[in-house]
Design goal:
heterodimer; A: alpha/beta; Helicase, Ruva Protein, domain 3; 13 helices; globular; B: about 625 residues; 3 domains; eleven-stranded antiparallel sheet; three-stranded antiparallel sheet; 20 helices; about 15% strand; elongated
């Protein structure tokens, strides 16, 4: 169970956030996994289920700066990255950083932006730097993008191709809260105010330290072999046109390590991989038959690979 | 090799090396019998396999299959129906090499082991010497090791083994071998064997025996052959009496000696001398003649025909090692009342020049004895050599007048002819001379290189032996230990046949030694018991903790599916107590397993402790359930 976090520091964050983000424990954990694996998160969900709240909550609890980009089809790349503005007083161009120069960036409805804007955003995500007029600006560390997309509305949208989706380490959906959680929300009213008042639990330094600790978690060759045989199986499966990439394999091992760290272990066991797999892999493949569910296809392949030992 | 220096060894490499060893040991048994081309191909494949293995090159399956098919066909390209064994063995060797080249998983390793075993068996078709035993024991030990590794690899999917593991495997192998040896000795003694060889392929082998026709120069080709012809178990006898007689020739046509099959025995003959009894262990000669110490009087064997003079023949060519007991006289006086005219025959092409030479040599001789001595003296001027022998139309005259260089054949032939020219009946005898004595084994070892031809002359009613080339032959020094081993192998293993077996068994049955039979029974029982115990211990130890655990859980009604991780499996158990215990086990096991650590003694103890607890709990639960019902 992914909710079964044992690491005390991580538990502190979760418990802290749980008070204002009722019924989103799983989403919180998955976002944390994405952050600590140095990856980015894509949330595919309906509007009004608390994506923004989650992003704000995370940034507050982790004491990180927060930026927000609301995508529209007239959004330009420079609206994201920032641009050089002429300063009358000094007579020089001055760089005015865009919202991407934040630790946590919420990119709302990313599929509404034009492909040009999307790709400049994705490029920034991959390189962790932005180049404007020949000058390269490093993005702050840690850098974490939460992108959302609306799966229902298609009119006037530019859905991200799978190759671009591959750059998101995890893709999750928050889903409707349980009845109990929902009634609690309604009773209390929107907790956005509380979110902004949230005390930080961790600081930047600690996050970076944990990130590097996680990279040192031991992953056995047996597990690597097992992951590779799974990846290989997706490439050979007749139901799939595009199988998993090597980047997908890397994402699996990174997130599995983070999951192991969350569970209080310094080595990876198969269950770590198994738990994060439904969030790491399905969005990266292309099926022959659109009618099938990517997740189900992936899991049915995965079930056939014997687990070590 | 960096992987050698680390504490844990990769099973894959280990398996590769053991398989390589097995293959090479098996192949060495046949290397001298198969053609050089296939030997080269074999080694090319094997060295290629090294490259493929260590460079991690992947070869397509169909290429390997194609190679396999080609190497099966290749040896048969120019084969004859007479000799189907060698091409088959060649094909077998090449297939195993091709297998070795292919990608190897446990299945292929098993196959190569099996092929190597077949190859080893096939080598016995060519030679069945004590080195086979050595090879067999080696292959047996290494195969055992290899099978251990393969099963371990298959069952645990571990990639590495440590020295501790290897040590214990070695221990088991030593145990198994230690108990197999007495068992196989018992089987060897009691397992019924056929009185006739089951597989008697007419294998063409190098000729070491004398046939009924000797071309001049034939014996010299034998004389360069160092292979063992026979071993004779006998007390030490004087060197000058060491003539091993096989066949005698009467007819010389100028180029070769032949014998008339039917020369009648003389009316009266008698022999005096020292009687010696001995046993001969004869290697296959593919001829019918039996070598015996000169002069033979008796042979204790059935189906033997005796031709005049003292030529002993078997009914079929000797294609298996043969052991026989015989009796001979040494330092003998052999009298015959009359002699056949055949012993005065001369070849048609004998020249007057030769006759004149003989007259010149013997001009001073007063009697027949002096004639013989003067001829012997004359031949001392000639040089002994086994190379550059005269082989023209009239080789003997070439020898006498031109080259003056030859081996025993030329000496003996010349002397016999000269004697005949002078009217003295003479014949040429073929056999072996000398042999090296092994004092520890108490036997003479006779090699093909000891082949010899000498002369017998009928002088005043007595047949006397004359050796004109005596003392000219350089003898070969024997390697003591190996011949000794060879002798024992032949005497106690090869010569152990149906008859000996029957003899031994009838001895066992006799009432004189009933208690020995009982002892043997206990002995057997003891061994079987110990083997069972060892097998059980190995079985127990070979079961990894995980296997034990899964078996226990199965007993408790929880079967793990292949796609379930251990933790996942454990977390699905409904019984809280059981779940707790099982989780303990899984956590400990995973911690070692997925950190790629070795299970040391303390870990094993802890794991086994949990397993015992689990076992006790499951048992208790089971009985409780029964009680409830």
């Amino acid at each position: 169970m992914i909710e079964n976090v044992k690491n005390q520091r991580i538990l502190d964050i979760i418990n802290h956030l749980k008070s204002c983000l009722q019924g989103k424990q799983k989403a919180i954990i998955l976002s944390l996994i994405a952050i600590f694996s140095k990856g980015h998160l894509l949330i595919e969900d309906l509007p009004g289920l608390g994506k923004t709240s989650l992003a704000i909550g995370l940034s507050k609890a982790l004491n990180l700066s927060f930026g927000r980009i609301q995508c529209t089809n007239d959004l330009l790349p420079s609206d994201i990255t920032g641009l050089n503005v002429f300063n009358k007083n000094t007579g020089e161009f001055e760089f005015k950083p865009g919202p991407i120069f934040n630790n946590i960036v919420l990119v709302d409805e990313i599929n509404r932006a034009t492909p040009k804007t999307q790709s400049s955003l994705l490029e920034a995500m991959a390189e962790e730097q932005v180049t404007i007029d020949g000058i390269t600006y490093k993005l702050p560390k840690p850098f974490f993008v939460i992108a959302t997309q609306n799966p229902i509305e298609f009119y006037g949208t530019f859905p991200l191709p799978e190759g671009q989706l591959d750059r998101f380490m995890l893709k999750i959906n928050i889903g409707y809260p349980t009845q109990k959680a929902e009634s609690e929300i309604l009773m209390k009213g929107s907790s956005r105010e509380d979110l902004y008042k949230l005390n930080p639990i961790m600081d930047r330094e600690e996050i970076l330290m944990i990130q590097s600790q996680i990279r040192n978690i031991y992953i056995s060759e047996k597990i690597i072999d097992w992951i590779i045989s799974f990846i290989d199986a997706t490439r050979k499966d007749p139901k799939i046109i595009l199988g998993l990439s090597t980047r997908a394999g890397l994402a699996i091992s990174y997130t599995a390590k983070t999951n192991a760290f969350f569970k209080g272990r310094d080595y990876v066991i198969p269950e770590d991989v198994k738990e994060i797999l439904p969030f790491v892999t399905p969005h990266r493949i292309i099926l022959k038959d659109d009618a099938l569910s990517k997740e189900e296809v992936i899991l049915s392949i995965f079930e056939k690979i014997p687990v070590p030992p | 090799m960096p992987w050698l220096s680390t504490n844990s060894l990769k099973i894959d490499h280990l398996l590769f090396f053991t398989t390589f060893l097995i293959l090479i040991i098996a192949f060495l048994g046949i290397i001298s019998n198969i053609s050089i081309i296939f030997t080269i191909i074999f080694f090319a494949f094997v060295s290629l396999a090294f490259l493929v293995h260590f460079r991690n090159i992947k070869i397509n399956k169909w290429i390997i299959n194609l190679i396999s098919i080609i190497v099966i066909i290749l040896p048969f390209v120019n084969f004859s129906l007479e000799d189907i064994v060698i091409p088959s063995v060649e094909a077998l060797a090449l297939i195993s090499a091709a297998r070795f080249l292919s990608q190897k998983k446990s299945r292929e390793y098993f196959q190569i082991n099996l092929l190597a075993l077949l190859l080893l068996c096939a080598s016995t078709l060519f030679s069945f010497s004590w080195t086979f035993l050595l090879r067999f024991v080696l292959v047996f030990a290494i195969s055992l090791f290899s099978v251990f590794l393969i099963t371990y690899l298959k069952d645990t999917a571990q990639q590495y083994v440590d020295r501790f593991f290897l040590k214990s495997v070695f221990k088991y192998i030593l145990f198994i071998i230690a108990f197999c040896i007495p068992m196989s000795i018992i089987f060897f003694i009691f397992l019924p064997r056929t009185p006739y060889p089951l597989f008697s392929f007419g294998l063409t082998s190098s000729k070491t025996g004398f046939s009924s026709l000797v071309n001049l120069g034939d014996v010299s080709s034998i004389q360069e052959d160092k292979s063992v012809v026979m071993r004779v178990h006998i007390e030490r006898i004087p060197q000058e009496a060491l003539y091993w007689r096989i066949i005698s020739f009467d007819n010389f046509n100028g180029k070769n000696w032949t014998r008339k099959e039917k020369i009648s025995f003389p009316e009266y003959s008698t022999i005096y001398g020292k009687r010696k009894t001995y046993s001969v262990l004869l290697e296959p000669s593919y001829e019918n003649y039996l070598p015996l110490l000169d002069f033979p009087s008796k042979i204790y064997m059935q189906n033997i025909t005796v031709d005049y003079p003292a030529v002993y023949k078997t009914s079929t060519p000797i294609s298996q090692p043969l052991k026989y007991l015989a009796e001979s006289y040494i330092e003998y006086e052999y009298y015959e009342s009359s002699v056949s005219k055949n012993y005065l025959q001369l070849p048609p092409n004998i020249s007057d020049k030769t006759k004149k030479l003989v007259e010149d040599i013997t001009s001073k001789a007063k009697d027949q004895e002096e004639i013989i001595n003067s001829i012997m003296e004359f031949l001392k001027n000639y040089e002994y050599s086994i190379r550059e022998l005269p082989r023209g139309n009239n080789p003997i005259e070439d020898f006498i007048f031109n080259t003056k260089k030859g081996n025993c054949e030329y000496f003996a032939t010349t002397m016999a002819l000269m004697l005949r020219i002078k009217g003295i009946p003479a014949r040429v005898v073929g056999g072996f001379k000398g042999g090296s004595y092994n004092p520890l084994g108490g036997y003479y070892l006779i090699r093909a290189s000891d082949a010899h031809l000498w002369v017998e002359a009928w002088l005043n009613g007595f047949w006397k032996r004359y050796d004109p080339s005596s003392g000219r032959i350089v003898r070969y020094k024997e390697s003591f230990v190996f011949n000794f081993l060879d002798y024992f192998w032949n005497k106690f293993v090869i010569a152990y046949d149906f008859k000996t077996q029957l003899h031994l068994l009838s001895n066992l049955k006799s009432p004189r030694i009933p208690f020995k039979g009982k002892l043997l029974f206990y002995f057997l029982l003891f061994f079987i018991g110990i083997i069972f115990i060892i097998a059980f211990i190995i079985y127990q130890k070979n079961r990894t903790p995980l296997k034990k655990f899964l078996k226990l859980m199965e007993k408790a009604g929880h079967t793990r599916q292949k796609n379930k991780g251990l933790m996942e499996f454990v977390s699905e158990i409904s019984d809280e107590n059981l779940k707790k215990l099982a989780t303990n086990f899984a956590e400990l096991y995973m911690k070692i397993y997925f950190k790629d650590k070795d299970f040391d003694k303390i870990d094993m103890k802890r794991l086994n402790f949990i397993l015992r607890e689990l076992g006790a709990y499951i048992k208790g639960r089971g009985s409780k359930n029964k009680g409830d019902n």
